[in-house]
Design a protein that fits this description.
This protein has helices spanning 3-10, 22-38, 42-55, 61-66, 184-187, 191-194, 217-230, 265-279, 310-322, 328-336, 388-400, 422-426, 451-465; strands spanning 59-60, 76-81, 85-90, 100-106, 111-122, 125-133, 146-153, 159-164, 201-205, 241-246, 251-253, 259-262, 287-293, 339-343, 346-347, 369-372, 405-407, 431-436, 438-439, 447-450. By secondary structure, the protein is an alpha/beta fold. It folds into two domains: 3-109 and 263-465, 3-Layer(aba) Sandwich (Aminopeptidase); 111-246, Aminopeptidase i, Domain 2. It binds manganese (II) ion (MN) (2 copies). The site of one manganese (II) ion (MN) has 7 residues, from helix 8.
Length: 469
């Protein structure tokens, strides 16, 4: 045998995901760009996902429970929790206790949250104090247009939903950065200290209230405008939930338009494929589930994070609508016998920083969705570490379904690391592995992804929901 044949037969090489019909990749990416541009926060994602699901015949599990209806194969239900996380089910033909095919991704992204007593006036402007959410390089969030999203509840209890700074005619908000001319001291600091958390104050007003003897006239005028528009007072910030995110829509990158830059790819670039693939499923063999979780960026804690019980509760409600004589073992079996894709973004080699990556085991943009056996840091600490047998099952599935995929770890061992929701679902005894799109500039205000990897991730989710044994 010649070396070339032998090489072909015996060696493994990553293959480009830019294969097949490029038009399909491009068309799918357009839908994603619209969804991502319209849904920057967890609340917005849940609202839109519910609308999309209802249009496909999904029902709120509450309605089913109220009507005391039995669920049948092919039925579609969802359960949302606090408007921030969502679980969607398409009931399969098999008994649910034999397990489900579950994708779990998250819809929260790093951002700047407004503090509870945030408004002050200084230096000719009114500004809001923020507390950053998730892992960010703080110096990246200055000097760029920001949009305000969230809710304000007025004294009468009326909830005002905010989205200001996205429409071209809207005002935006801004965090000032020290001019380079006098930044000698700042530039000598480490990157992590160059901009402090308490400097992430967002300009929201500038024109003073007309009466000259009033105190803090810019702050007062800002409050006057807020009161006019939303009938709120300063006290109402105590119960507000407001997030500042980069303003603007996703944009194509490059002459060939092969990539997309946007805020919030992490993790909508996995949530969107997981959701859209599920919405196409009709009467699958195994019950298919798409979990869109909140709070991943702060450790999956709280009642809307996957370390909480919302997913288990949703499963138990569905099981109780499927079975007579409900008992706990049914839910536990359904969870334990499940296949899970923990769908979250991964890193891929950044050619500007080759020193941070180990070439053989780092993913490359445009080479398909990334299947990751383990995450964690310093000796796999905090990782759920997928079983080899399960990896084999998925490898075979993806090869058969012609899903472009590769493997990848987050950078060199011992440089840092990361983790996502896999371990919380693995805790139920399920087979879990990480899968997702490689992102460049992860957690920066604008992140970068390959359209081919996005589409490969959709194909992976689609094939995964089809697992029938
Ligand atoms: Mn993530
Ligand atoms: Mn993240």
């Amino acid at each position: 045998m010649k070396a070339k044949e032998l090489e072909e037969k015996l060696t493994y090489k990553r293959k480009s995901a830019w294969v097949g019909d490029k038009e399909e990749i491009m068309a799918y990416s357009e839908g994603y760009k619209v969804f991502l541009g319209d849904n920057k926060t967890e609340r917005e994602c849940v609202k839109s996902a519910v609308e999309l699901a209802r249009a496909k015949g999904f029902k709120n599990i509450k309605e089913v429970l109220k009507e005391k209806k039995r669920l049948q194969p092919g039925d579609k239900v969802y359960k949302e929790h606090h408007g921030k996380c969502l679980t969607l089910f398409v009931i399969g033909k098999q008994c649910i206790c034999k397990g489900m095919n579950v994708t779990a991704s998250h819809i929260d992204s790093p951002r700047l949250d407004v503090k509870q007593v945030p408004l002050y006036e200084e230096g000719g402007v009114a500004a809001l104090k923020t507390h950053y959410y998730g892992g960010i390089k703080k110096y990246q969030w200055t000097a760029l247009p920001l949009a305000m999203h969230g809710i304000l509840i007025d004294r009468e209890g009326k909830k005002h939903t905010l989205s200001i700074g996205e429409a071209p005619e809207d005002p935006v908000f801004f965090i000032s950065e020290l001019l380079i001319h006098i930044a000698g001291d700042q530039m000598a600091k480490s990157a992590s200290a160059a901009v402090s958390a308490e400097q992430l104050n967002v300009v929201v007003g500038h024109i003073p209230f007309e009466e000259e003897d009033a105190k803090e006239r810019i702050k007062l005028n800002t409050l006057r405008i807020l009161n006019e528009q939303f009938s709120v007072t300063e006290e109402d910030f105590l119960s507000a939930e407001i997030e500042f995110v980069p303003a603007g829509k996703p944009r194509d990158v490059g002459f060939d338009r092969g990539m997309i830059t946007a805020y919030g790819h992490d993790d909508k670039v996995c949530a969107y494929p997981a959701l859209t693939a599920l919405l196409e499923k009709e009467t699958p063999e195994r019950t298919c589930v798409c979990v869109l979780a909140d709070k991943e960026e702060v450790g999956s804690v709280g009642s809307t994070g996957l370390n909480g019980r919302f997913f288990e509760n949703a499963v138990s409600e569905v099981v109780s609508c499927l079975k007579d004589n409900y008992n706990d073992v049914m839910t536990k079996s359904a969870m334990e016998n499940s296949y899970v894709l923990s769908m979250d973004v991964n890193s891929c080699i950044d050619a500007n920083y080759p020193e941070a990556f180990e070439k053989l085991n780092s993913a490359v943009a445009g080479y398909g969705t990334i299947l990751t056996k383990y995450t964690g840091s310093r000796g796999k600490s905090g990782s759920s570490d997928a079983n080899g047998e399960y990896l084999y099952k998925l490898r075979t599935l993806f090869n058969e379904a012609k899903v472009p995929y590769q493997t990848g770890e987050i950078g060199k061992t011992d440089l840092g690391g990361g983790g996502t929701v896999a371990l919380y679902l693995a805790a139920y005894g399920a087979n879990v592995v990480d899968l997702g799109v490689g992102v460049l500039s992860m957690h920066a205000p604008y992140e970068l992804i390959s359209k081919a990897d996005l589409y490969a991730t959709y194909k992976a989710a689609d094939a995964f929901y089809g697992i029938n044994e």
